[in-house]
Structures are given as C-alpha cells and as structure tokens.
Amino acid sequence: MPAKMKIRKGDQVVVLSGKDRGKKGKIVSSSPRDNKVMVEGVNIVKKHARPTQKVTQGGIREMEAPIYASKVKLICPSCQKPTRISHRVLSEGKKVRVCKKCTEVIDK
Q: E-assigned strands of the chain?
C-alpha cells in the first residue's frame, strides 16, 4: 500500500539532499505509488532519443526525472521557510494542511 504523501502538485519545495541540494522549484507531478515527485528544474537527466515520425530530429534531450518525496520539504506560502506539515480539522469538518513553524493553514 502506498504511503500518504503530504506534498501535492503545485507546492513550492526545496531539495534537501543530492546533487541538487538547496534548489527550489514547483512540483510538476507526484506519484504516491512510488513515493516520488517531479520538481521543476531539478534532477535534469540526458536521454538519448532516435528520430520518430513525430520528432524528426533525434539526439540528446534533457528532461526532468522523479526524486523521492522524502528528499524535498515544503516551503510555507506565508512564512517562506521550509517546514514540516501537520493536519488540522476545521469547524466545517474539512481537513487542511498546516505549517509546523507558523501554524498557518497551507490549503486555501
């Protein structure tokens, strides 16, 4: 069973470890089954592609590859600091994500 991920598509994150440590970017896609995320401008790999009918020019393309979700940390939109995430249930019964540092609601 896949682990529940606390970060979502569109979140601003910072990379904690690896060759891209310290880089910031937006999450392009997430894969909870593999516990991986793709971050914009992070973990760029080179892929060798041969010409096809769609892409007539072959060669070496650069593209983003997924990284483990545990290697990124969410940047809080209100305090602009990397933070862990907790959850809070509002009076309407809606469950929202909350910043651990400033206790501000992340989901609007």
A: 12-15, 24-31, 36-39, 44-49, 59-64, 67-68, 72-75, 82-83, 85-89, 95-99
